[in-house]
C-alpha cells in the first residue's frame, strides 16, 4: 500500500495518467508483437557507432520487460503527488529535464565503467526508468516521514517504506539497472538543486503546456471524486467517519492467526492506534425526533493546529479534507495522514 500520495486516485494528475495508459499500452502491444521489440531496444553501441539517435527516444520511453513496466507504473502512480503539488507543467519539466540529463549521464557512466573494469556495456534496460528513479530525489527531500508501525519491535515501518521497496525491486530486476538508477539519481539531484540554472534551460514551454491543456488534458483528466455515502440516508457525518476509521483499522491491523498456530501475529505487528485513548468522554445528547442516529458528532468543534493542517495541505490534500481527518483522528497527524491516504 502506498501511503504518501494522497487519496482521489489520478484526480488532478492528467500527465501521470497519460504516462500510465500510453506507456503500459505500448508495453502490452510490444509483448503481443515481439517482431517490433528490436526497434525499442536501448542499444548504446547502435547510438554511438551507427548514429541511431532515434534509439534514445524509443529505447528510453517504453519498457520491454513487463515486470519493469509494472514496478515503474507503481512508482509513477505514487509520485503523482508532485504533479498535484506543482502542476502538470512543472512536473513535465522535471521529467523532461531529468530525461535529457540522464541520457547524457548513461553514456558517461557506461564509459567510466568500461575504463574501470574493462567491460563494455552494450545495452541498458528500456523504458522511462532513469526519470522515474530521479523522482526519488524530491520524494526523499520533500515528503515528510510518518511512522506507521513497528515489526518485531525494532524495524520501523513508515509511510515511505513500501515505495523504497518497489524501487529496490526495480533496481534488482536487471544486471545494469543500477546504472540507470545512478544516472537518474544524479540527474534528479542536479535538476532539483537547479545546478547551473538547469531549470531555466530544460523546461516545457508555456505554449506546449497550453496546447496539452486543450488537447491532451480532456483525454486523460479524471473527474472529481465524490463521497461514497451521501448524507441524509440515515447515516450522519460522525457515523461515516467512524466507519471509515473502522475500515482503516481492518486494513492496517494484521489479524491474529488461528489459535492452533505457533505465532501470534498481533505481537509482531502491534495495533496502529488505540481507539478512544485520547478521546474525551462523550456527553449525553438529547434524543432526536427522527429515526436517524443520535450519536454525537466526533470532535467537530475541537481545535485543530494550523501547523498540522499546513503539513497535510503540503502533501496534496485539500484544507477541508485535512480538517475533517484531524478532527476524526483526534488531532493525530499520523492517523489523519493514513486516513486521507485511504479515502
TrEMBL record:
Listed SMART domains: UBA (SM00165)
Signal sequence range: none
Record's bilayer topology term: Multi-pass membrane protein
Transmembrane segments annotated in the record for this chain: 91-112, 124-141, 162-191
Record-linked InterPro entries: Rhomboid-like_sf, UBA, UBA-like_sf, UBA_UBAC2
Gene3D superfamilies (UniProt xref): DNA helicase RuvA subunit, C-terminal domain, Rhomboid-like
Record-annotated UBA domain positions: 303-343
PANTHER family assigned to the protein according to its UniProt record, in alphabetical order: RHOMBOID-RELATED PROTEIN, UBIQUITIN-ASSOCIATED DOMAIN-CONTAINING PROTEIN 2
Protein name: UBA domain containing 2
Lineage per the UniProt record: Eukaryota, Metazoa, Chordata, Craniata, Vertebrata
Encoding gene (name): ubac2
